[in-house]
Amino acid sequence: MGVFGAIRNAIFGHAEAATTTAQTGQVTLPPGDQPGQSQWAGTQPQTVDAQAALTRIAAEKGNPNLNWQSSIVDLMKLLDLDSSLDNRKELATELGYTGAKDGSAEMNMWLHRKVMDELAKNQGQVPVGMKD
User: What is the distance between the alpha carbons of residues 35 and 78, in angstroms, rounded to a whole number?
Assistant: First the structure.
């Protein structure tokens, strides 16, 4: 699974766990991890409120100081994912970043916006201000 797939699964999996707990049915997330492609081929998925899921994760972990709303590093930390430069370079490659993969503010801001865009393409409900 790629880095984006790990991000998506962490957010969607948390949202699904909260939904499944409240319902009697069981929902299984698809295993794919390619950005830009819906992972729900042949099914009618429910839209996942990514902001609500991330807010719940932050509240559960007691990490109110993480700025996951605009920082890719904080978003990855919140999801217990490796936020190292090497991992962010891998994410940048997955998502098609063409600039210098040097951990610059420009790269990191692009990554955050692109992750939010990709979540929206994969049945995630993301606030307009967090996307391109």
Answer: 20
How much is the pTM? 0.76
CA atoms of 132 and 115, how far apart (whole Å): 10
State how far Cα 72 lies from the chain centre. 10
Q: How confident is the model at residue 70 (pLDDT cuts 50, 70, 90)?
A: very high
CA distance 94 to 118: 11
Residue 7: inside a domain:
yes
Neighbour count for residue 23 (Cβ, 10 Å): 9
- Give the angle 115-1-75 at the CA atoms, nearest 5°: 35
Report, as an integer, the average pLDDT of 5-9.
94
Does residue 52 sit within a domain?
yes
Domain that holds residue 15: 3-23+46-123
**Total structural domains within the chain:** 1
Q: Which residues pair with 49 in a beta bridge?
A: 125
